[in-house]
Amino acid sequence: MMCRDRFRANRRGFKQRGITLLESLIAMVVIAIGFSSIVMLQLRSMQSSQSSFQQSIAAVQATDLVERLWANACVLNDEVRRDEVLGDWRGSHEEHPWMPNWTGEMDFDEATSTYEITISWLDRLATGDEEDSNRTFRYLARIPVLDCN
């Protein structure tokens, strides 16, 4: 008789103790969504970090070419010598492990003595298709043509 009275007392307005199965399932779903969001955020952070790192490497490579051009400023009016400097620069950065499929190009504008250095590479961690994975870095440098004779 005591058990029946207790059951009836709970139905009359006494507070329930514990949680139901439905409440615990809803809590588990909310926690799972939150955890998967944190994992996706971490993944995106790693992709952005890798992309920034590669762009920094491209900036260092472009600066290296500009320094090589300044070191040969006396002979830059000769197109053959400019191509030799570009070839040496490409050779020194040819097998870079952090810049897969990279290419380096240089254009010279004689009117303004401006060099445009373009470095392109494949970002393997980028999201999307292969077109979105191609990254490009452009660097402009003005180096005067000197006559050192």
Question: What does this 3D model show about the protein?
Answer:
The chain has 149 residues and is α+β, with helices and mostly antiparallel strands. It contains four helices and three strands. The chain has one domain (22-142). Helix content is 53%, strand content 17%. The radius of gyration is 32 Å and the shape is rod-shaped. 10% of the residues are buried. Keywords: Membrane, Transmembrane, Transmembrane helix. InterPro entries: N_methyl_site (IPR012902), Pilus_4_PilV (IPR013362). Pfam families: N_methyl.
Strand and helix map with partners:
Layout: H1 2-11, H2 21-71, H3 79-92, E1 103-109, E2 114-122, H4 130-133, E3 134-142
Antiparallel strand pairs: 1-2, 2-3
Helix pairs in contact: 2-3
- Oligomeric nature of the chains: single chain
What is the number of independent domains?
1
Q: Helix count, per DSSP?
A: 4
Q: Taking strands numbered 1, 2, ... along the chain, how are they ordered across the largest sheet?
A: 1-2-3
Helix content: 40-55%
Compute the number of strand runs. Answer: 3
- Provide mean pLDDT, rounded: 84
Tertiary shape: rod-shaped
Give me the strand/helix succession: HHHEEHE
Based on secondary structure, the structural category is alpha+beta
- Low-pLDDT segments, ≥5 res: none
Kindly report how far apart the N and C termini lie. Answer: 117 Å
Q: From the alpha carbons, calculate the radius of gyration and give it in angstroms.
A: 32 Å
Pfam families: N_methyl (PF07963)
InterPro entries: N_methyl_site, Pilus_4_PilV
Keywords: Membrane, Transmembrane, Transmembrane helix
Transmembrane segments: 21-43
